[in-house]
Amino acid sequence: MLKFRKKSFLLKNNFFNLNYKSLLLLINLFLLLIFSAQNCLNNENSGFSENQYRIIDIFPHDNTAFTQGLVWKGNYFYESTGLYGRSSLRKVEIQTGNVLQKYDLPNDYFGEGITIFKDSIYQLTWKEQTGFIYDQETFQLIDTFSYSYEGWGITHDGKHLIISDGSPVLHFVDPCTMEEVKQVTVYFQKTPVRFINELEYIKGKIFANIWQTKQIAIINTDSGEVTNWLDLGGILDNIEINSSQDIDVLNGIAYDEDKGYLFVTGKFWPNIFQIKIMDNFVQ
After folding, report:
1. What's the CA gap between 21 and 99, in Å, rounded?
2. For residue 50, what pLDDT is reported?
3. Are 125 and 260 members of one domain?
4. Which of 52, 69, 91, 121 is the most exposed place for a label (fewest CB within 10 A)?
């Protein structure tokens, strides 16, 4: 009887262990399936690349343009191109990429960033420490201004022109006097961020291309802290690129305030991408 009871106990114990382990396995598999299904559903519904952005449309772009600045205004692009002997200011038709209006800079100026402030276009140059102010409609040169650093990117917050010089420093300039009123140092996790290039002011934040990277820094205007990074590393995978085509770095940010879309491109890129950033990505 003793052996029978012991055997019976062992059988029951083994049966219990087997059922317990099977139950745990089934629960884990069930949770895994739910998680996977939910993840797939979220990806299908959002269409966002790595939960950051979604491509809305792709427009043609002059692949000989060494893009240094980009602005969306009145359903047109205004673009600044660089390189000595090839720098220009352009008005571009969005749907076709056709250049509708163009002003060529003198050969000894290297064009850089642009912004439009109160119907005037402000354009920087790289090492010449000279900026140009044009009438937005006619491209007629109205005035020039000077600064003591390299010109890289420029935008405005409605009160000040905001200029980058390739360092971690942003210069805030009074557009009436062209005098600098303050500086803000850009940093991420207590480390200064260098090579800040093209700029776009969007809803209280500054979006900045970082030279030689495929990322856009989102900067707190007051503190200079980078609060997020928009990674565009895979965006060129969405177009066909000729192997002989010279593709340079990501550079050029424009913002359609009416629809909330960004436009991004690069130097010698054949296209401009219209993208939608995920809700709550900018904090």
Report:
1. 69
2. 59
3. yes
4. 52
